[in-house]
Predict the structure.
Amino acid sequence: MTEIIRESKRSPSTTQTYTPDMILAYGVNGKDFESRLIDINGEQKRVFLEKIVQHGSVTVWCYTGGDKDVFFLQKNNELLFMTEDNNPFKTYLEQEPTARDSYFKEGIDKMRLTRYSMKRTEQAVTTGNKNLFTHFRWGILAGGGIGFLHGIDPSPSPDLHLYSGVFANTPLYANLSIQTELYYIKDGYSASKESDNYFNDLIYNKQSLQLPLMLRYTFLHSPKRHIPYLQIGPTLAFVLSSDVQSRSGSIGTNGNSPAPVYQQEKTPSTTVGSSIRGGYEFRFNDRHAYFIDLGYTWLPDKDKRSLSQLFITLSFNL
C-alpha cells in the first residue's frame, strides 16, 4: 500500500491523502500499518506494510501493492523477504516448547505463506491448542431415530428406524467445514381408520439413500478434547424402492359391503429437503475422534405429504 485516503469528519466531501513519507504508522478496522522502506523489483521504495502476526521478537509484515501479497519477516529491524520455500517464521515457531510434540511440528511444516495460515499456526503453537490444526477426515456412521409421515389421512403412527453409512469432513476456513454423509435408511408406516360405515387402511414403505451436504461450525478455540459443533444444510434423498398402498371401502348396515378399493402409487425418485444438527466431537488422540449428535431432517414427498425425522447419530473417523 502506497497511500491512504482519510475522509474529514467535519466535511465528508473533503478527503486528505497520506503517503508513507508523511506518517509513520496508522491503524484501521483492527489492522496496524507502518511505513517501511522495502526493495521492489530492485528498487527501494517506501510503502505501508500491514502487520500480520507478532511472535516474541519477530514480526511478519505484508505488502499488498502488486498482483499478490508479499511477506517480510522483521528481526532486529531487518526485513527478510519470505517465500513458500524459504519461510523463516517456521524456524522461530519450532523453538517453542509445544513444537517438541510431533503433531505441532507437522502443523508448522504444513504452514502456508498466507495471512490465515500463519496467524492460525502461531495461535495454535502459542496456546498449545491442537484443535486449531484442521485436516480432512472420513469415517463410518450409524444411528437411529423416529420418523413421522405428515399430510395424509389416516395419520400413521411414528416409525422407529435405523441407518448406517459413511461421512467425509473437509475444512474450509477457520472453524468452518463441509460435512458430507451418505447412508441407507428405510421408512415404514401403517395406519387404519374405521367409522360406523367406512374404513381406510394405509401401508407406506420406502427405502432410500440420503445425502446431507451440511456446513459445520466447530468451536475449536477450546483446547479440550470434547468440542461442540453445529451444522445445517440441504439433504438429497435418492429413492431405491417405494410402495404406498391404501385400501378403503364402506361398511353396509346389513353386514354386506362392496368390494374394497385398492390404490397403489410410487413416491418421487429424488427429493431435496433440509437438515440441522448439533453435537460433540470427542478426540481420544490427535488423529481419531468419535462424534455424537442430535438432528432433525425434513423431506418433501408426493402432493402435500412430507417426512420428518428426529435422530441420534454416532460416527467415527478412520
Summary: The chain has a mean pLDDT of 86.
